[in-house]
Here is the input.
Amino acid sequence: MRLAGAPDDQFYESLDVRLQQTPHFFSDAPLIIDLDQAADLVDPADLQWLVDNLRQRDLSVFGVQNATADQAEAARAVGLISLSGGRDAPLRGSRREEERKPDPAPEPEAAAPQAAPPPRTTTNKLVSTPVRSGQTVIADRGDLVIVGPVSSGAELIATGNIHIYGHMRGRAMAGINGDETARIFCQSLDAELLAIAGLYRTSENLGAELRRKSVQVYLEGERLRVDPLDRTQNRSGQ
Amino acid sequence: MSKVIVVTSGKGGVGKTTSAAAISAGLAQQGHKTVVIDFDVGLRNLDMIMGCERRVVFDFINVIQGDAKLKQALIKDRRLDTLSILPTSQTRDKDALTSEGVEKVLEELREEFDYIVCDSPAGIERGAQLAMYYADEAVVVTNPEVSSVRDSDRVLGLLNSKTKRAEESGADPIKSHLLLTRYDAKRIGEGEMMNVEDVLEILAIPLLGVIPESTAVLRASNVGLPVVLDDKSRAGKAYEEAVARLTGEQIEMRIESEERPGLFQRLFGRTA
Here is the structure.
């Protein structure tokens, strides 16, 4: 969780709103407070109050990061571990979150889950029959490969990449656990929706020139890019 | 070895009951002992299309609940002695169908008949699911328009997942066939409706037949005559050929078309 200054009532309000939207997502998830932009939060009492408030909301705070020396000491005083350095992904994630659903009361303190990375055991999934309307195929621990057509109204969900060798008319969501390096590869694009790590585009803004083309879909910063496969191949060859 | 064939579609009004009546009459005409069951509990239509509504005493639900014997409920067709009809109840609803009851009735029918045709209700709820659950083959009735095709696709998904053959390991999956009905070559030529190739590309199952939009179909329903027994009509002829394909005969697909020639050839190559 990234703070931008000492938390006030408004912070807790918007936090509660966020928690209500996804009641189980953050429940008991290990949480780190990022103090990079909250240098004024140095009083151990303030920190203790924040931790108490978060724990009341079933958020399991266990550490701080990007703390100044004073803050690190204050953290230790209230029983938190001070960690050095942060990863980039959650920052991008939080910014994107704001872009996607602009808050009525814009809050700088967007909460991004800083969950400990789960143990990586990948199990890929291969489906070689047509995926019909209304069916959902989930690869919850890796890549999903479909050999056959995917109908409109069908859903493909994977924590890793999604490959579709066939005409793709349905919805594909790759990197659903937040993996921003996940990609979607599609032999013949006619999809209703494409999403990577929660950032999506619908058929309305996919562009008619890409229809029925072989494409790959990936994240480039905040943009979901859909590139014809032949062009990207040329580019990567350079 | 008897076969249970479900006639289903998802969408209503595409011609399921008409097709179930025509297919069962066609099978009976070929000499197969055939029974057609109405699964549309509460909206009894099949007996009207078969022209036996005034002979219904006991029904499918009575048999399931043990109030009547199967023999009492079965109505023998007056035109074809190999054809029987098991009508449904008009006063009950789909909750009266039980999985065990349906299974028991089908097992009993399997002993006597070669083909058991199940006329599914529209939708994907209980009635439709029970109609398809014990099926060996499925005839998916589709009109050449997007919503019908999409619903058929959904039904194909259910056929591959929510049926006995799908749940039993080791069993062959249900064999699904596409029956394209209310095919209007003029409107397809004008681009108002989908052509056969588009539908086949989406549904990706073999084509059983293409039934042209025809006034003979409604006329036949009105007088309670399965359209396949109406020799003169194109629709009747098309059903007859579809039935022949269903029993494994190889018949070239003839689709009346305003499109370029060569289409027949390609279609045939695709479904053969």
In short: Chain B has a mean pLDDT of 91.
